[in-house]
Every structure is written in structure tokens, then in C-alpha cells.
Amino acid sequence: VRMKSRIPLILLACGSFNPITNMHMRLFELARDHMHQTGQYQVIEGIMSPVNDDYGKKGLISARHRIAMAKLALETSDWIRVDPWESEQETWTETVKVLRHHYNESLRLLQSKKEFMKNKRPIERSTEDSFSYQHPVLPELKLLCGADFLQTFKTPNLWKEEHIKEIVEKFGLVCISRAGSDPAQYINESDLLTKFQHNIFLVKEWIQNEISATQIRYALRRGLSVKYLVPDSVISYIAHHNIYTEESERKNEGDLLQPLKLHNTTVNPLND
Amino acid sequence: MEDPDKKTEVVLLACGSFNPITNMHLRLFELAKDYFNETGKYKVIKGIISPVGDAYKKKGLISANHRVTMAKLATKNSDWVEVDDWESSQSEWLETLKVLRYHHQKLLSPDPTNSPQNAIPLTKPGRKRKQEPNRHDPVKKKNQSPDIKSVPQVKLLCGSDMLESFGIPNLWKLEDITEIVENHGLVCISRAGNNVQKFIYESDILWRHKNNIHLVEEWITNDISATKIRRALRRGQSIRYLVPDVVQAYIEKNNLYSPESEDRNAGVILAPLQKNASDSKN
Question: pTM higher than 0.95 for the full model?
């Protein structure tokens, strides 16, 4: 049996997940299908990383709830999980740092697996174990996002140039867009993105399913149904804890997003 | 004289292939219910999914048994939407109007007969309508709550595609469309920026009964077409989170959709087109 080793791939999605919706979970499914069809990758894990409360986005409710809802939603998924690391940091963390963290974690896991294999008696190892032990293929970690995310690279002061470079060069993007939008254009308009376009995988979503969390919150505030857009378990959770209200939507109102705050400080040190 | 504070009871009836049922189909019910509740004049008491019979002969239509089962699985944890297999168990294809009449009949009397011939029209054709098109002869019901108007109405729940299909030659009988909008009513869910209002404007019959055509705008884009679901399945792509998990599991277990299943009825004329063409010849 010829074993063509595909590169193990981890998909990481960063975002508010305020709340998690069926669309968020669809992104993972679409990305996995696409990367498998390239013939080069084997998706081994999907990680959802809700942003830290310190991000300061309007209407962002406590990470405790956002993590709990994501856990409920992903209960039935055998490959996607939610990770609280980013939300547990003391401050907001740049996306590139989240990518680095999870990549290092995956390497650590690989290393400890190798140790484990080494300590196993040869007879206990399966053929597959032996093969991968001797020829470990390093995993890759790519950032899973929507096309609108690509566009945000252009927002002044939101991203550091060197971070964008590291994201597309060292990690890579899997970018889902809907029929009719053209992310290739954003790539074309950026020299940096163009240079690393081989590491930006564009996936088209033909089945329109743009369930924006903002609209979900809007519906919830008005007592309208969000059934079949958001898992039932999440709907129950929201109702039970009465999380989304007019008041919760006003949270952080008028505040600058944390990344913009940071970059403004760096640019204008004399304002202290 | 009816009490204006009383609410009219409404049953939402969705006819279609449900091949397979998707989250979008289920959403239609939720959107319609919210809409009626917000008017303050209606109370939605039930939702009915009525999958079309195999005799419809649509391309790619798999057996009604499966379609009904999937719909039932999908609505298992809904406390107000249910599946009715009367339409799908008829040996011949039935006009939508007949299904509407049947369900209306069923609401009025506790023991409806199963014969489609007994699905008689509510009013004689040609009868002049009074100002309020929703008025029906009152029927005495037991245990009626004081704020409910006497007779529940069955309204056809659909997307803009069905409404606009009224324009396809020979697909619908003109008198059927008239009776649907005149005696029952339509609830049409469509995406923001649609052409439905224009379509209604351009049709004299629809325009005349526009008070009985309720347009609901869906702001959350959720265009999960069953055709695309079947396509994804043929290509081994995931349909998770587009259909209820139980439906996805059922499809996978029974290997329902394949290139072969999509070829079913290929080249066969759709039942309503065949029927209406032969009727007009007679």
C-alpha cells in the first residue's frame, strides 16, 4: 500500500462568536472539504478561538458565555473544538500570537507522541504508528476566515504589517467567500498578499448561508426566532441566561477597538 | 359583529418536494410565525409540512417514504410544526388547492374523510366577497378561548419562487390560484431586494387579493436550496449545519442521494403540466 503522506492540517478560526451560529460551523466544513480536495492536506483538527473580552467590540458579551455556547454547539462535532486560551489572556492578543500559540501546542503534542512511541515496545506499535514515528510530517496551521477578513487588512492601524506577513507566509489563510464576492481582487490589490497567494486558499460558498451574529442578536432582542440558524442548545442557553438584551448590545459603546487603541498609542506617544 | 380584539387562528401549510428538508424550510415557519404574532391580529397554532407525492414526477425526486421520514426527524423537537403524509400517500398528484382544502376541512371537523373528492371548496366560485376577505362562516368550537376568532385559517406558506411559479404556463390553473388567495391566503417569505411585490403588481388576480398575501422579508440570508444540498452530497461534500443533524445522519445511513437518484424522472413531464395540458385539450 503506497502511503502518500498528506500534510496534517489544523484550521483555526478567530472571531467574536457572539454568538456562535450555524454559519461559523459551516466555514469549518467547507474549509475541510476544500483542503482535502487539493490532495495535499489531511485536516486533523478545527479550533474555534473566541476573542478576549478586552477586544472592546460593541455588544461583546462575556467570554465565559461565548465559550459555553460554542462548547454546546460543537458537542456533536468530532473534529472541531473551542479553545479558551485567547479569551483567558489578561489582555487582547494579536491574531498572529494566537496562531503561534496553537502551532506550538501542536508541535508539543507531536513531540510528546514521539516520546510515547519511543517508549512503546515495537510490537505494540501499529504499522501506521511506526511509519509516522519515523517520518513525522510537520503539521500546518492555517487561519480560517471569511472574505471580509481579508479586507480588514486594509483598515488603517488595525493590523501590523509584519503580522500580516507572518500570517500569510508562515501559516496561511483559508478564506471562505460567497458566490458573487471576489476575494481574489483584494489579494490582487495588495503586493504582500499577492506574493504569498499560494498560501491563501480561496473557497467559494455556493450555498448562501450568511447568518451574521449581529442579526442574530438583533432578532433575539426583539423576541424573534433564531431556530435553525443557531443550534437549539445555544438558543436554550441564551434564553436561560438572558444574555442578549438592549443593554448588552450597548456594552463598549463609543470605545475604540483594542488593536486600534494600541496602534494609536504607538503612533502618538506625545499624547501621554 | 366580530370582536376586533379577537385574534384569528392560523395554520401554516407548506407544500413542496422537501427533497430533502433543510434548515431553510424550517426557518420559513419560524419567520411566518413571528410575522403573524407581530401583527397582533393572528395566532399561529400549527405548522404543517406536506411533502409532495411521488406522482409529481419531478427530476431527482426520491421516494416519499424517505422524504416524509426526514421531515418527521427534522420536526421531532418542534412543538408546533408537524408533518402530514396525506398528500404524499395519494396515488395521483394532487393540486395544492386540494391539499389546502383538505387541511381546512380537517380543522373544521374532527373526523375528515380521506377522499380527495371530498375536499370541497369553501365557497361557490363567483360569490361576491365582502370587504374583509378573511371572513368565513363561523363554526362552533368547544373550549374556545375568549380571545380567539371562530374559524382557523389555513394559509399557504411558501418562498418567492413558488409565488412566481404562478406565472409558469400550465403549471397552475387560474381558478386554483384565485381560490388560494381569495379563500385561504398566502404567506410568502423572500429575501430582501426581491421581485415579489412587482410580480403581485403585474397580476390582476394577485393584486385584487393582496390583503391576503402576506409578504415577509428574510433579512438573514439563508438560501439553502435542496438542489444544492443534493449536489454537495453527490460530490461527497459536507452538508452539516445546513440540515438538521438527524437528517444528515439519515441521508448518510441510507445513501439517499446519488447521480442515479438525480436522474429519476429525467425527461418525464411534470404532473401538473401534463394534467393541465390534457385538461385544456378536452
Answer: no
